[in-house]
Design brief:
3 domains; Urease, subunit C, domain 1; Diaminopimelate Epimerase, Chain A, domain 1; single chain; 23 strands; 24% strand; 506 residues; TIM Barrel; binds zinc ion; seven-stranded parallel beta sheet
């Protein structure tokens, strides 16, 4: 597949005509005629693993990331309205970026907010900074003991200082009102529009809170979504069963699958490894063993769901493959059942081979590799497993689905395509393990046709072809034939989903 210059005719959301046109792209639809001189059309770009509502929360909420002083943070907070009932709720502070690197205190907040409760999550999500009013509402005082797996920091007089770590955060957060339906709706819309502006026409939304599903469905039915959403519902603790979720099929919103976790992340040494970490004397964390995954996935498959499991370390990839192999061999997962491994970061070659043999979909995030390369080198040292194995996946017959894991990384798919094709760690000049680089054509396939294969919709999406859904992204550059360093500088000129222009550059 190559980007094309053509006159594309659309009727009722499908492509009905494609004629070569040497001067760019012209789209003719019920909306009229849109001309893009010199431009190129590609099938609408897909992000096959992301967290849509979290992106909306970030874009609409009180964000304190990368601020370099306490004063700056207090100033921004002062001018922000409350977000959760009468609580001021924000996230992203990090005292390591301040001149005074000691933890802030309740008193710092009390000076600005004597009367309204304030709860500010640290950038890593592992602690919260709370004011006195917030602690009063939660009934916290000098006598409150630390909960299991949590710490309440105390000052020299033994009073709680305002910092709550890990499980201690729950002592406060249980008093904060949940988001309203209206806020959930706004978060979804804001994030969807941001995706559309990046040329995205469809996302595979991961770890979706089942309580939000009615809002997603309502937005999809009312035609308010500019992108299509394949939803993978939280399932680690049987949340889907508790809420009585079932698969649902729709043009813009599909409840497609369940999402499990086999291990943690590499940065915090939570990824489960076969050999111990090079920089620590342990093997990481297994969050679900293979028998439990087998049983939980079986229940989901019986209900009609696809199965997606997070696996970062080589041990986690191995155990997920053991469970998936058994599901296939016992006929529980038939040929139509989609089984996916999310991340596939560190892998033994034998497990890549097994993925192909048992038809398992691979969903890597190329951009994680270039953001995390320096950390990954330290964690991994020398071992007989492949890190971020994209070329290896393709050479074994797999078709990795492109994705970003946003908002952990930027939602811009062109940055993911760039990472796939250059593999140059951020702030560096040389590719890391260049033998795992893939071609520009493969990278485009990964973000289009192959991504649709990971949700079983490749028969009608992911190609510019007659009768295919008119999901189209218009770019100012031919990202397959251009010099590789021009991919990053490419601009999205317009995005169409179901034949309707959802975004165009001014
Ligand atoms: Zn994720």
């Amino acid at each position: 597949m190559n980007p094309i210059q053509a006159i594309i005719t659309i009727e009722r959301g499908r492509i009905v005509g494609i004629e070569p046109y040497p001067n760019g792209v012209i789209i003719i639809s019920e909306q009229g005629r849109h001309e893009y001189p010199g431009a190129y059309a590609v099938p609408g770009l897909v992000d096959a693993h992301c967290h849509l509502h979290v992106l909306g929360e970030l874009l609409n909420g009180l964000m304190l990331y990368s601020l370099s002083s306490k004063e700056e943070i207090l100033n921004i907070c002062k001018n922000h309205s409350t977000l959760r009932g009468d609580w001021l709720y924000g996230m992203g502070w990090n005292q390591e970026l301040w001149t005074d690197k000691s933890y802030p205190t309740a008193q710092d907040l009390d000076e600005v907010f004597p009367n309204i409760p304030v709860y500010l999550r640290r950038a890593d999500g592992h602690s919260a900074w709370v004011n006195t009013k917030g602690m009063q509402i939660a009934g916290i005082d000098a006598r409150t003991p630390d909960p299991d797996g949590g710490t309440i920091l105390k000052d020299e007089h033994g009073n709680p200082s305002g910092i709550f770590i890990d499980n201690a955060m729950d002592l406060i957060s249980m008093y904060i009102p949940a988001l309203t339906q209206e806020q959930i709706r706004e978060n979804i819309i804001t994030a969807s529009k941001a995706c559309s502006a990046f040329g995205i026409t469809e996302v595979h939304d991961m770890d979706v809170n089942p309580e939000y599903l009615p809002v997603f469905l309502e937005l999809a039915e009312s035609g308010a979504l500019p992108i299509r959403i394949q939803s993978y519902v939280k399932a680690q603790n049987d949340e889907w069963i508790e809420h009585g979720c079932l698969p649902a099929v729709g043009e813009f919103m599909r409840i497609a699958g369940l999402k499990f976790f086999a291990d943690g992340a590499l940065g915090s040494r939570g990824a489960a490894m076969i050999e111990p970490y090079a920089d620590a004397d342990h093997h990481g964390l297994i969050l679900m063993d293979e028998n439990t995954l087998f049983e939980k996935a079986k229940l989901g498959i019986d209900a009609g769901f696809s199965i997606a499991t997070h696996a970062i370390g080589d041990k986690a990839n191995q155990l997920v493959m053991n469970a998936y192999q058994q599901l296939r061999m016992e006929g529980i997962a038939d040929d139509h059942t989609i089984l996916r491994i999310e991340h596939n970061q560190i892998m033994k070659e034998i497990d890549i081979e097994r993925m192909h043999h048992f038809d398992i979909k691979s969903i890597p995030q190329s951009i994680h590799c270039i953001s995390d390369a320096n950390m990954a080198k330290v964690r991994l040292g020398n071992r007989n497993s492949i890190a971020y194995p994209w070329r290896s996946l393709i050479d074994h017959g797999l078709k990795p689905a492109g994705s970003s894991d946003f908002p952990i990384e930027s939602a811009n798919p062109l940055l993911g395509i760039d990472a796939y094709c250059r593999r140059i760690p951020m702030q560096e000049k040389e590719a890391w393990m260049p033998e795992e680089i893939i071609t520009q054509k493969e990278a485009l396939l990964s973000y289009t046709a192959w991504a649709h294969e990971a949700s079983g919709l490749e028969y009608r999406r992911g190609a510019l072809a007659i009768k295919f859904d008119a999901d189209i992204t218009i770019l100012d550059t031919d990202i397959v034939s251009c010099p590789v360093d021009a991919i990053k500088k490419t601009n999205v000129l317009a995005t169409y989903s179901a034949g309707i222009r959802r975004f165009h550059a001014e």
